[in-house]
Specification:
This is L,D-transpeptidase-like protein. By secondary structure, this protein is of the alpha/beta class. The protein is built from 8 helices and 14 strands.
Length: 334
C-alpha cells in the first residue's frame, strides 16, 4: 500500500470513528445502497428472525428481501425463492456440527431453510496477512486472487460441470464431477466472474497418482487420468466461493437451474468499516445500529475489509515473485 492509499484509508477510518463517537452509528450502519421497498415481512417468517442457531439476523433478511423484490420488479428474476448468507456467523455450531449461515427462503411456500456454507480462507503473504481462521472470518475483500468472501448483491447465473479426477476403490474407479454455479455481482462485487466466484458442493479430489486409461475422455495425451481421495470440507473454509453440503447443493442447484434468483451476502465493506470503527472507540454495536455475530466478534476482535485497489497490487507482486517451475508430475498408481 503506498502513502496515498494509507492516508485515504486512515482518513476514512478516522471519519468513521468520529461519527460513531458522536452517536450517528445507526446512519453508518445503513451501508447498503437504498433499494426499492419490499412487502412487509410475513408473520410466519418472524419466527426465523434472530441471531440464534438456524435464524437469520434482521438486517440480513431485510437487505436480501429488498434486493430480491428490486430484481423481481426489474424482471431480472422470476424465481419464487431467494438466497442470503451471513458471513459474520461461525462455521461451526455449539454442538460441533456445521453452522447454518446460508439461507434459502421461499415466501410463497412458507419455506425457510438454513444450511452451512464456507467462508474465504484468504492468504498469508509476506507483505500482508489476510488469512482467516476456520470458524470465523475476520478479513474480507473483492480483490482477485485474495480467496476472500466479498459481501454484497449477486444474481445466480449459469452452471458449469467439470471433471475433477477419478475416485473410489482400485477395482471400481469412477470419474467425479462437480457442478459450479456462477454468480453475477454488482457494485463492489461486479468482478465476481473475474474472481470465479460462485457456489458449489464442499468436496474436492486430492490427487494422489495417475493410472493408464486411454479410453477415458479425460485422459491426457499419454493416456493417463488423475486419481485421488474425495475430501469433504462442509462447513470449512473455501477459496472465496460459497460452499454447501452435497445434499444442500443438489437442492440449491435444482432450484436455480435455468431460473436465476438473488443472493445477498452480509457484510458489505461499509458494514465492516463501521463495525471496526465502533470496536475501536469501544461503542456498543447495538447502540450504533450495527450488527456482527457476537461469538465471532469476540474471536476476531475487529473485522477488516481489503479493497481490491489495496490488495490487488500486493497479490500481483507475490505472484510475480513465485519461481517459474514446471507443474509436478503425478506418480503412477501402484
Amino acid at each position: 500500500m503506498d502513502d496515498g492509499q494509507k492516508e485515504t484509508r486512515t482518513l476514512r477510518f478516522t471519519a468513521l470513528c468520529f461519527a460513531l463517537a458522536a452517536g450517528v452509528g445507526a446512519a453508518l450502519g445503513g451501508a447498503a445502497p437504498a433499494r426499492a421497498g419490499a412487502p412487509e415481512v410475513p408473520a410466519w417468517l418472524h419466527a426465523h428472525l434472530g441471531t440464534g442457531e438456524g435464524q437469520i439476523a434482521p438486517v440480513v433478511l431485510d437487505r436480501a428481501r429488498r434486493l430480491y423484490h428490486e430484481k423481481l420488479q426489474q424482471g431480472t428474476v422470476r424465481n419464487p425463492c431467494y438466497l442470503a448468507m451471513d458471513a459474520t456467523r461461525p462455521s461451526t455450531a455449539r454442538d460441533g456440527t456445521p453452522g447454518r449461515r446460508f439461507y434459502v427462503i421461499c415466501e410463497a411456500q412458507r419455506s425457510f431453510r438454513a444450511v452451512s456454507s464456507g467462508h474465504g480462507n484468504g492468504r498469508k503473504l509476506q507483505r500482508a496477512d489476510f488469512s482467516n481462521g476456520r470458524d470465523c472470518a475476520r478479513h474480507f475483500s473483492n480483490a482477485e486472487g485474495s480467496k476472500l468472501t466479498a459481501g454484497g448483491s449477486y444474481v445466480t447465473a449459469e452452471t458449469r460441470t467439470s471433471f475433477k479426477g477419478y475416485v473410489g476403490a482400485a477395482n471400481r474407479r469412477e470419474p467425479f464431477f462437480r457442478t459450479f454455479l456462477l454468480f453475477d455481482g454488482e457494485g463492489e462485487t461486479a468482478n465476481a466472474r473475474e474472481r470465479a466466484i460462485g457456489g458449489h458442493p464442499a468436496v474436492l479430489v486430492r490427487w494422489q497418482c495417475r493410472f493408464k486409461n486411454p479410453d477415458s475422455p479425460h485422459a491426457d495425451t499419454e493416456g493417463y487420468v488423475p486419481y485421488g481421495k474425495l475430501v469433504n470440507y462442509t462447513g470449512g473454509r473455501s477459496n472465496g466461493c460459497t460452499t454447501w453440503s452435497e445434499t444442500a447443493s443438489k437442492e440449491i442447484l435444482a432450484l436455480v437451474e435455468d431460473n436465476p434468483t438473488t443472493l445477498y451476502i452480509y457484510p458489505e465493506s461499509g458494514d465492516i468499516d463501521a463495525v471496526a470503527a465502533a470496536v475501536t472507540v469501544g461503542r456498543s454495536l447495538s447502540r450504533a445500529g450495527l450488527y456482527w455475530n457476537d461469538t465471532c466478534l469476540q474471536t476476531i476482535r475487529a473485522p477488516r475489509f481489503w479493497p481490491k485497489e489495496t490488495l490487488g497490487p500486493i497479490i500481483d507482486d507475490w505472484r510475480a515473485s513465485l519461481p517459474k517451475l514446471a507443474p509436478p508430475e503425478l506418480p503412477i498408481c501402484k
